Amino acid sequence: MTYIGQPVKRVEGADKVTGKAKYAAEFNVPDLTYGYVVSSALVKGKITSIDTSEALALPGVLEVFTHENRPKTAWFDMNYKDMDAPPGSPFRPLHDEKIKYSGQPIALVVAETFELARYAASLVKATYEQEAHETDLEAHLAEARDPAVGVASLLKPPPPKPRGNADMAMMAADVSIKARHVHGPQHHNPMEMFATTVEYGKEDKDGKPYLTIYDKTQGAYNSQLYVAQIFDLPFSHVRVISPYVGGGFGSGLRPQYQLFLAVMASKALKRSVRVTLTRQQMFTFGHRPNTVQEVELGASSDGTITAIKHDAKAATSQFEDYTEVVVNWTGMLYDVPDTTLTYKLKPLDIYSPLDMRAPGGVTGDHAIETAIDALAYELGMDPVELRLKNYSEKNWTEGDKPYSSKELRACFYQGAERFGWKERNPEPRSMKRGHNLVGWGMATGIWDAGRLFARAEAILTVNGKLRVSSATADIGTGTYTIMTQIAADTLGMPIEDVIFKLGDTEMPLAPFQGGSMTISTVGSAVKQVCEDLGKKLLKLAGKDAKSPFYDANWKDVTFFDGELRLKKDPHVSMKLVDIVALNGGRAVSETSTSMPNPLVSGKYSKHTHSAAFVEVEVDEDLGTVTVKRAVTAVAGGRIMNPRTARSQIIGGMVWGISSALQEDSKMDHNYGRFMNHNLAEYHVPVCADIHDLDVIFVEEHDDIVNPLGAKGLGEIGIVGMPAAIANAVFHATGKRIYDLPITIDRVLY
Amino acid sequence: MQTTLSPPAPVENASAALPALGTVRLTVNGTAKTLQIAPWTTLLDALREYLNLTGTKKGCDHGQCGACTVLINGKRINSCLTLAVMHDDHEITSIEGLANADGSLHPLQTAFVDHDAFQCGYCTPGQICSAVGLMNEGQAKSEADVRELMSGNICRCGAYPHIVDAVTEVMGIEKQA
């Protein structure tokens, strides 16, 4: 039996549908106290006084922490840098009287009950001295500058140097188009609000406590590092546990301030503390930055693109240079000799932006793929045909490396076929359904297929059960299920006998879950450790000179149906449970490390691709846009589990619809504050907004990305959707809407 | 410039204004529970923080997301928008009470697993309770009705197509072509 490639149902499914799955704020800890955060109403300036006396006078209120009385923490910036920190000086909660952004935490009230803490927080009074602030990117574009370079740049390379002469080539082009795209900030808004439960344990001889921390994070080790460094605790004293995460989408890649505040309070009060942010406070850390992009394309009349200019300017905070890859994708998709790609930042009085599903990718893709559609109209060419004509076989932004695999052509063909693209009349406003205009649009998507270092442990118990673990996360991606499938297949065991655990710093190191890298990174480690355990089992089985496995080598054997077998004679077998029995009553365990071989994988550019096809209906009287159906064809390597893979892509498509039509964090620049900081006014799709979504996985073989041949699917589903929707709106209405989201006002005026 | 931006204290003597704890009797999933809680405790917090029934989720605390949906006398309700003291003598059913006594799952729970109608799982208890309420209401006759009437429950992972598949299957509604 093999499980990889099968639509195995989520192994944690029953826990999730019965309410047994525990998230960070749900662990039952004795003598728990509750922290409630007070947020700054000011955007920039300083606190001149903060009066906590009324709050402290309430019986049951234990303490109100502010910058005036907070316990001492680490001094150096370095200590506050988590594994995903961009270059700069990380924000320190309650550090001093300075206010750097609206919503900044200025106090933490800790009380015996949640209700009391919440009420007491309303009694904390601050007075401020206000300074002029600046939150408007578009008003300050001229001041945008090159981003600082740091460790984060390794995963997020800056744009390549310009090649050729894009300006000259643009002038010489037969046809050219130029467009400017603006989109606002977006907030992740996972359904679970950020929360940390700190269980205060015993103290060592120096009085340092052992803390068990249930944190909402995409990387347990990242939270551990952050806490240990800031609070001067040995790693052995900081255990971070995070078995379930109620959505991440990037928001959990960095420790958020409730973690700092909960640990600070717990350590100071010597009590267990839970801090949960409010939905409003979910708008006070990290977001997809607003960007302004300009794209120019030139082409010869046969459709060959001859010149590209793509410039992006993004907002960041005053304290960190958050960057993302926005314009490089354009170079990867279109290998044009005369290309200039540029990316700049403008610091504003806001919190640092934060990776949000396909960070930069969905941003840049929207601009370039809308421009390609406009160019197709200028040329009188079909948009699919134009893309096929300019198909890139290598990635010049990475020094002309070939792609490890790239079945994007198949995505175009199969997606178009399923959608019925050949029936399309390219003429805008040519299709109607009842009262509504109908439009068809498409776009290409691209994302990284990266891989990092990870460790995993595998234990075969005396009962013949396999326990595998690695401190990765499952933010809904399917990690639990797919790792279980990999382990079961590698050691030929029935899936019921295999359990995979994650999200605990007592487990072997894994990086945070992000960038669509988990399958490649942790999946490879799980495969590796199961093979290594298998070798140990073979050795054990062959220890006795009379054993049929005595002189068997690894290549001579196979694992199947809970047995070790000789390949040449499968009747010669030994049950795994019997092999363990030879280990003197002890389980057999192994821990392994897995990392890519840069000598092999470094020679290739590794990416996922997609083609998104969308049908919209537009009501021109009301300005409403509805995505009636969409087909996304994905080239994502080997599909480990079609059931969870489909959910990943469907989810990404819903995010694409959301990004194109709904999501927008509205900043009031007078107050420097996001005004729609709740789920009624920050629009995300509900059930009624989502119609017929279809997913195709095209066959793609890749021996380079990792030993599994699988690529991550977390981001690729969103990438092409906004451009495909914008292009469909153009086809429906004849009106090119450059900015996102495409809301009623933009359709009507 | 000096500015005071925090709201003024709602009462002159805050401490004296703290409400006294009172006895609340809740019947949750068929079991009677007695709690000593302040009257400003929401039903959601009573379930999560006082009864350790954390299957009911807090997603916004404002009745905007549906994650806290439970059933009261069979009707779906946002438990964050109602106080526990208002539910003496009511039959409250949370996600923990949907499965049968023998542990076998409610048909909607099974259908949600079968159709992969969730990813992170955080909105799932609310979605399932909401779907039970929807079925009790008897209003939904078509897939479009289900989509409309399930729109009070946000799923940020975007599992909506699979949620609709799961609910329509259990209700015996034919998929639209």
Automatic annotation (TrEMBL), chain A:
Pfam families assigned to the protein according to its UniProt record, in alphabetical order: Ald_Xan_dh_C, MoCoBD_1, MoCoBD_2
Protein name as it appears in the record: Xanthine dehydrogenase family protein molybdopterin-binding subunit
Domain Aldehyde oxidase/xanthine dehydrogenase a/b hammerhead: 18-132
SUPFAM superfamilies cross-referenced by the UniProt entry: CO dehydrogenase molybdoprotein N-domain-like, Molybdenum cofactor-binding domain
Superkingdom, natural source: Bacteria
UniProtKB/TrEMBL annotation, chain B:
Keywords annotated in UniProt: Iron, Metal-binding, Oxidoreductase
Domain 2Fe-2S ferredoxin-type as annotated: residue spans: 22-98
One Pfam entry name: Fer2_2
Annotated SUPFAM superfamilies: 2Fe-2S ferredoxin-like, CO dehydrogenase ISP C-domain like
Keyword 4Fe-4S: no
Name of the protein: (2Fe-2S)-binding protein
Protein source organism: Fibrella forsythiae
